[in-house]
Each structure stands twice: as C-alpha cells, then as structure tokens.
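Q: We require from you a single protein entry containing the residue sequence and its fold in token form, and nothing else.
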Amino acid sequence: HGRPNCSRNPEPMQNGEAMSPDAQDSRGPPGDEENQGAIPSAPPLPQEPLPCPRPRLVFHTQLAHGSPTGRIHGFTNVRELYAKIAEVFDISASEILFCTLNSHKVDMQKLLGGQIGLEDFIFAHVRGETKEVEVVKTEDALGLTITDNGAGYAFIKRIKEGSTIDQIKTVCVGDHIEAINDQSIVGCRHYEVAKMLKEQQRGTPFTLRLVEPKKAFDMIGQRTRAPKSSEGKMVTGKETLRLRSKGSATLEEIPSEFEDKAIKKVDDLLESYMGIRDPELATTIVEAGKNKKNPDDFAEALDSVLGDFGFPDVFLFDVWGAMGDVKNGRL
C-alpha cells in the first residue's frame, strides 16, 4: 500500500530527490576531494524506496478465439486493462466480455478476477453472436450464478443442473446478459442483475438477450502453433498484481493458505445468499474481517468498505463463522 505511484509523480522520494545519474554527478565535480568520500554512500540511497515496478510489468495477451500475441503494461484496474488489450488488437474495449488466465477456453475457474500472477497469460473473450431466449420461471430460483467483468458486463458463471435455465440449451456459461425484457442492464453490477432475475414472476414469460463469447473455428490450428502462450502452465510466482476498481494496482504476496480457504468459502456463501460469484469481493470481505475480534466490529468494517451491498445480517454471521472455522482448522 505504501508504494509510491511513480508514474504520476516521479520526482519526490522519501529521502529527498530521486537520484538520476546526472543528479549524482551534480553533487560535486569528480576532482573535488571533499565530495569524494560522500560518493560511495550515495548509490544505495535510491534503493531505499523501491523504484515503482509498474512500468516493468509486461503481460502477454491474445484474443481467445485466435490472434497474434500482444504485450500490454501500465494498467491499474480492469477497465484500463481492457483498454490496453483493445488498443493492441485495434478493437473497441466494449467488445471485450471477460478475460481468462492461461486458457483460451470459456473456463470459469480461470476467470480473471482482481489478481493476475506475474507469469499469467491473458486471453480476452470478445462479443460473438447475440441471441434472445424466452424464460418461464417454474420455481423461485432460475439456477443461474451471475458474476461481472468489473467493467459493466454481467455474465453467467454457473448453471445449476436440472434447473429452469438448464432446460434451455441455448443458454451457456460465459454468456453476457445484455438485457432483461428489452431493458439494457449494461453497467449493472452482478448483485443487481441477480436481484432483477429473482424478482421475475413465476409463470410469467420474460426474455433474456444474451451475447455469447466469439468462438474459434479456423483459428484453432493457429493457436496450437503458439507454444509461448504458457497454456496450462502452473504459475509459481510468489507475487500477484492486485487490480482494484478504485485506486492503483499493487504488487502483493499471493494469499496465505488461511486467506485462500476463507476466500473460497466466502465466495460459496455469496453464491448461496446472493446468486453471484466474485473472488475479488470475497477477498475484500476476508481482508475486512481477518483481524477483527467480534462480529460487530466485522460488520462495521464491512459496512465502511462495502455499504452499497446491504448484506443481510444472517450472511454476515455465516461469513464470520466460516472465517472462524478456517482459522481454527475446522474447514
């Protein structure tokens, strides 16, 4: 958190001015004996506040349906990431539905959330066919889990087997929900979309306008000839780039085993209570709760960070309980 944001304000550093090679020379002419003693101690100074690593973080990217490999860097959040990818491939950022890491498939386990490993290869899935389906609710739940791409598009992350939606074979995981009953929901967060779907009346037909990710046809051969895509490669980097919807991206250690288990559990609870999955949101919830002494402090901390969501008390108690279980090795 304390890293300086070098791109905007490169001059000041904690120990006075940033030392460029010119600045070092200007401290005294090489022949000036009085300054000679000070010179050996000068070089370590710039290393105290670590130089900002952001400009050096270069990620490789392809369009999931097939494309050459592009290189991107210098983004701090998901919207900026999409803009960079769009620039490389000369498309509009609004064409990008979501990204997966290290796989070109529509694999929801590989979905790009708020963290990118430094070795990760980014595949961007772009808009394909648009389709409209009519749905009649036969039970309270449709059987859909919704997530969003952090840039205004909600899409289907999971379809429950045997559910109402599961019977409609044209609806697939990865489909972006563009409109409900011709009302555009672009720009809505996943929890708002899940709520709208929940509020649809049983027995009354409604329509969903869906956009599926573009599929690869003749491009498949091309992709297998690009071994550098690190497809399927296990990433062992100890640091990840954490993207935030507000504020700058930060380099962070990968989550501890406790955090990892707690995040997965909280994500499961988000799905069962709210019909959404969002590892980034789950991470924020775990961070808000990990050093709190009791549920009241936790609820207060969560309210200050995520007040918009209006989580029900019963959800908060379940999350608090789950985090306790993980801490005490019961999960």
